[in-house]
Specification:
There is one protein chain. By secondary structure, the protein is α/β, with parallel strands linked by helices. It contains nine helices and eight strands. Strands 1, 2, 3, 4, 5, 6, 7 and 8 form an eight-stranded mixed sheet that branches. Helix 3 links the parallel strand 1 and strand 2.
């Protein structure tokens, strides 16, 4: 969400923390032709803060399937081209590239040149078997992906992207991947469920308001995985979904505090009538977090879509 989401809070909210967008805001990736350029919505500080939790949360079950698919791919011996959509600072590549064998060429897509710089500089240089990993960056519009754009691609990846897309944009993505015969590993989409320990009577009301906020302006929010499953399945792909929850305890207190500010701020933005009770709630939750007495599980899902390979694709 925007950095101004909790005005008057001396701690502030790192841009993107939550992570949600405010009214009229879009995610880091520019998704539509003709949209005016906007300032970046996700601060590198937020992306760095969440990267360890993301890495710990991502499901490992898809990896064996991906390794087999990449090894059997026509022309796979020459290396794998991986397109990372909405790459941010490149955390997906840092997590995945060293877990896959063989030479890899990562194509990093984002609309924000500042984040693309971080992603390129911080990209891994070696695969699991020591093979070379190379990288290039592309600034542009993810919703314009076509099979031609994915020509030769071995894999499409994204992290925390699906929930800030519309149904049309997800269908465009699914069609591009299926038409190109390219698997898609789409991780860390919010599932709409949060567990806080100890519980508070206001937890459910805040969660409901947050989920409604995420669906603003046609964005999918917690419905994203269901819509993506339908989009890929209708086009003949095999889809597998795995849980990938953040499990935040005392060691993740800095991330938890930023997430709380974003989560509660979005809920209040959606339902201003919550403001007074939410202020008390947030104050008490942050105090518990600082004391190491708060545990949070933020549920996400990872989706692996496996289209039929395109005959003779390289």
């Amino acid at each position: 969400m925007g950095a101004d989401a909790h005005e008057g809070d001396p701690a502030g909210v790192i841009a993107g923390a939550g992570p949600v967008t405010g009214p009229g805001e879009r995610a880091t990736v520019r998704l539509r032709d003709g949209e005016a350029q906007e300032p970046p919505r996700y601060a590198p500080e937020w992306l760095r803060l969440r990267e360890p939790a993301d890495a710990a949360a991502r499901a490992t079950e898809p990896l064996d399937t991906l390794r087999i698919r990449l090894a059997e791919r026509p022309g796979g011996a020459g290396g794998s081209a991986v397109h990372d959509l909405g790459c941010g600072t490149g955390s997906m590549g840092r997590w995945l590239a060293p877990r896959l064998d063989g030479p890899q060429h990562w194509v990093l897509h984002d609309r924000d040149p500042y984040l693309l710089h971080f992603a390129a500089v911080g990209s891994p240089r070696a695969a699991a078997d020591g093979s070379r990993v190379t990288v290039e960056t592309r600034r542009g519009d993810v919703a314009r992906l076509t099979p031609d754009a994915l020509n030769g691609a071995a894999l499409v990846t994204a992290s925390a992207l699906l929930d800030v897309l519309t149904r049309e944009e997800v269908e465009t993505l699914a069609a591009a991947c299926v038409d190109a015969g390219c698997p898609a590993l789409l991780t860390l989409s919010v599932a709409g469920r949060v567990e806080l320990t100890p519980p508070d009577p206001l937890d459910a009301e805040i969660a409901e308001a947050f989920n409604t906020h995420q669906r603003r302006d046609g964005l999918l929010g917690p419905d994203a995985v269901t819509v993506a499953c339908e989009a890929f399945t209708e086009r003949g792909a095999t889809v597998r979904v795995h849980p990938s929850p953040w499990r935040l305890g005392p060691e993740e207190s800095a991330l938890t505090a930023q997430w709380l500010r974003g989560w509660v701020g979005a809920a209040v933005e959606e339902r201003p009538d919550l403001s007074e009770r939410a202020e008390r709630y947030l104050r008490e939750r942050l105090a518990a977090c600082e004391a190491g007495e708060l545990a949070v599980v933020v549920h996400h899902c990872d989706l692996l879509a496996l289209p039929e390979p395109v005959g003779g694709a390289s």
